């Protein structure tokens, strides 16, 4: 055996044994060390057999499932694995789509694109799950802890490992799970390898075939002591999505007269007494999204001696997402609603608002996310028993790195004299119906809904969001192995610096420069929109599959950027016809952006970790027993900086009575710091009752740190506000991490090759939940010009709050029918909590555990004689996504957002034409499922997206 083969095989076995040594309580390490003679009696067969089978590379679905099962079986902790079926052939085109096939794992979708964007593990989503790339944290410019899986190319992923119980030498941020994505390296298989793929995909609504092209080259040389691997792939996805939305259901109290057609001044002056929720804004739009991603990777390995392996790698990705939007939107205020009809829950199911303006909206969102991670790893077998592992990496992620405008938005329409006594009626459940107008059109004339002769300018919203996240990390670990005893010690330093700022047209009030709609609406501000700016109309017929509800017949199609340029071309000075004179200090005709001081944040988080664990095997009554005990100390310091200011006045708009402008005190820099430390023990035990029946028990404490963008030190009041919707947001630099005490009890039956059945019970006691509560309060005594009273702001802020318990059961069954080629993988998860959502709770500090939902997955397949076919069925029940909605001004705190239950069916096939060439196909969402959300009650629709079906066909070549 040459150097690479010998060392590679040894490293693989060590990796498996490392995975088998998932942490345990440090208080029990002394017991492990005190009984080495007992430990020496352990049977090494299970791990050795797993390593031997893993060295045999079997391609295809069945080979992949067997490799996954071998690793799961050998591990002492609860680990699930997904392996590539062949080089350049991952089971799904999206990493999260593959992960949802695992027990206890479900996904969150990006509504507009339909793409799996994040995962939930045992009810804990997003930031509760840490994603690592080859054991390293990956920077993410979103401000959260989670990784957007639409930015991770799946084509050349080697393996995904989901650690549901913690590995103390790997991570601590795993209340949900720790995900480790492993990419291939040249020493994995010495020699020269090439993999090429090309595919075209089409979404049925977009109707445009777009490409995916990739290639991988790997070779070893210099007597197989050096190797290099290079891969790159370009992926494009086009999606056209139809949407209906309510931007927020706001809770408040109606006056009794509002249930009739009219109110007197005295009646309106009295306080409201009837609890109800109303729609802040209602609308619909169509979105065309072009998602382009480039992924590239270089890995170099050098083995200067039998005992040392050096690896240098660089992972790069750049995703550009451009979305063009056309739609309409109408705005409501609770105090202006009449003929209000409420259902038994208090949901406003019908109403009329006099003089309602109508806006036709357009926008272009363009965001670029660029991430690069470079790393150096050295593995040294210092002695026969001792291995040293040193790892250093640098990762930087930038959102809109060139500072370009990321969002162009425009509203045109009619109001004033042409305002409508407009009504919206709720007719059913948010799963299959959307609200609809009872009246619409200028002054109620539906035939003139899009009459271009009366449409004028309203507002122009331009934003430039710019974030960066920079991570530096260094890890040093040592592993001692002697007979059946393994001891690990190590330490890690990590520095994570997150910065963000936003420039927009709210900060300088330029968004209102031509507000008012113009002369047809009876206003002196605003200008008519020339017909040349309107590019046509979009039919709303058969708008959403499976949904009832009527929309106006068409939407206007125009370009927000062209609209802005037209307004800029009108400028002749402050007396320009239609200009909202006095709105905008310093305005010179160009709708420029200005820095929003309240958006500026810089968060520096430094963390130090140290760990120790012991792993041994022995026998109990002749049954092999695996025991791991360990602990991890986490020390964290946070330095949070921002720019603070307070409002000093609020003024109304003469151009549009719905708009408000806030003036501020001079900005001042603000810096705060905090620190905390926690000890995190872990214990894993596995008893092999028979060769095929394994019993597991695991106990641990884990933590999840707050999102970095939650740690800002200032209260931010936006400069551009709306009547009846004054808002402010506050973060908290003193937030502590979530803490969880976790317990697992499982039984696994490996009754034949590539087949098993398992049941796993889990319980998590979580404290320090971060609550995004709201309260209504005055700020600096400023007066609301619409009421003459101190302005009441809805202030959203985050604090550490209550505790909660989550418990559940996972069921899994994988079966292959002999040599027939047929098989299936099925699982179901059932979860519950002692803190479910209480829709009757009207306090401003309502709390519930988010993300919890029952789920089930089934993958049925055929794999034989070079032909593969797979059907994947994924179901997830309704769940609470978050507290907060797009507009959140409720008197009853942060209103909830629920995601409705959904079932999606995907199909895929692969045909091997020769040993080197195969063709493949994929059909996603074959039943045309939609994505929909609702508020406190099931008929309070928030969003519904029809993201259509997607079909892909392509060819792979490898040798």
TrEMBL record:
Residues 438-926 form the TonB-dependent receptor-like beta-barrel domain. InterPro entries: Beta-barrel_TonB (IPR000531), Beta-barrel_TonB_sf (IPR036942), Plug_dom (IPR012910), Plug_dom_sf (IPR037066), TonB-dep_rcpt-like (IPR039426), TonB_rcpt_bac (IPR010104), TonB_rcpt_CS (IPR010917). Residues 1-39 form the signal peptide. It is found in: Cell outer membrane. A motif (TonB C-terminal box) lies at residues 942-959. Keywords: Cell outer membrane, Membrane, Receptor, Signal, TonB box, Transmembrane, Transmembrane beta strand, Transport. It is a multi-pass membrane protein. GO terms for cellular component: cell outer membrane. Its main location: membrane. Residues 72-176 form the TonB-dependent receptor plug domain. Belongs to the TonB-dependent receptor family. This is TonB-denpendent receptor. The lineage of its organism: Bacteria, Pseudomonadati, Pseudomonadota, Alphaproteobacteria, Sphingomonadales.
